[in-house]
Design brief:
Blueprint: H1 5-21, E1 29-30, E2 37-38, H2 48-55, H3 94-115, E3 123-125, E4 130-133, H4 137-141, E5 147-151, H5 154-184
Antiparallel strand pairs: 1-2, 3-4, 4-5
Bound molecules: zinc ion.
The site of zinc ion has 7 residues, from loops.
């Protein structure tokens, strides 16, 4: 005996209806905003409060991609585990933050170049971010040459100031020596 197609369809339908019966009939759907079980009555929200809440821009219960993520930042994280070679307790994001700081310092250097806030004589900041001490012709005649002071910053500027002092000391000595020679002649 073979079952007719209609009989098979009827069996499937009964099975599906049985599965449906296992669900509490009063919780057919969930409110889109608060997720409470409810009967669908022409709105996907359980009430005006929820629909207003959603309309105000709040995410639906299942819309986790619309929820704001906690902003932990990249400070204070310590490495607790990792593959061999990982240094436990090190500051994982430090290289990243350092690179960011360098970029900020570089941008500040550019601002200095533009704004002319660099008031150290004979000191120029070039496109590579380095500060160069470039002595005057008089200082060059005394043996001074250009010096790459490294990346522009407190250290480089201190070096440039020291070079300026050394150069003026040398000039004073040269003038004194010239005067002594003149007196001797
Ligand atoms: Zn609701």
């Amino acid at each position: 005996m073979t079952m007719s197609q209609a009989a098979v369809a009827a069996m499937i339908e009964r099975a599906l209806l049985r599965a449906d019966d296992s669900k509490p009939s009063n919780e057919a759907i969930e409110c889109f905003a608060c997720g409470r079980g409810m009967t669908y009555k022409g709105s996907r929200f359980c009430g005006k409060r929820c629909s207003d809440y959603y309309d105000s821009g709040a995410p639906g219960k299942a819309q986790d991609w619309r929820r704001s993520k906690p902003d932990y930042g990249i400070t204070g994280w310590k490495v607790v585990a990792g593959p061999p070679g990982t240094e436990i307790r090190t500051d994982y994001y430090k290289p990243l933050r350092d690179a960011f700081e360098r970029r900020k310092a570089n941008a500040a250097g550019k601002a200095t170049r533009r704004g002319g806030r660099n008031l150290i004589p004979n000191y120029t900041i070039k496109a590579n971010g380095h500060g160069y001490w470039q002595p005057s012709a008089t200082s060059r005649a005394l043996g001074f040459a250009s010096v790459d002071c490294g990346f522009d910053g407190d250290e480089a500027r201190l070096k440039a100031r020291a070079l300026n002092e050394a150069a003026s000391a040398a000039r004073r000595m040269a003038v004194a020596a010239e005067n002594t020679n003149r007196e001797a002649a």
